[in-house]
């Protein structure tokens, strides 16, 4: 992971990510595993300023609890770089691929 990608690690747990950029398009492949604090309004990590989206990104991710994985859970990256999923409950693991314009 490029340590410059993340400005703030809000949650506990392990975060791994790789990214590449082509023109104005940023793609991030990420996997976060930690406690149940990655839900909406709490966040779990924040992109550093050079990597934030031009407009709010809304997509999906895979999120898992001890009971199993749930596909297509909403994922938001706002223009301040805050990243969180929109499930109503916390998740122990969140992973996916996001691509957005900078």
Comma- or semicolon-separated keywords:
102 residues, mainly beta, 0% helix
Describe the structure.
The protein is mostly beta strands and 102 residues long. The protein is 0% helix and 55% strand. An eight-stranded antiparallel sheet has the order 1-4-7-6-5-8-3-2, with no helix packed on it. The protein is globular and about 40 Å long. The two termini are 20 Å apart.
**Uncertain spans:** none
Please state the average pLDDT score: 82
H-E order: EEEEEEEE
Given helix and strand content, the structural type is mainly beta
Please give the count of helices: 0
Rg result: 12 Å
Shape descriptor reads globular
Helix content: under 10%
Strand order of the largest sheet: 1-4-7-6-5-8-3-2
Q: How much beta, percentage-wise?
A: over 45%
> How does the major sheet shape up?
8 strands, antiparallel
Topology (elements, then pairings):
Blueprint: E1 6-8, E2 14-22, E3 25-33, E4 45-47, E5 57-65, E6 68-77, E7 82-85, E8 93-101
Brief sketch in words of this structure:
This protein has 102 residues and is an all-beta fold. It has no helices and eight strands. It has strands at 6-8, 14-22, 25-33, 45-47, 57-65, 68-77, 82-85, 93-101.
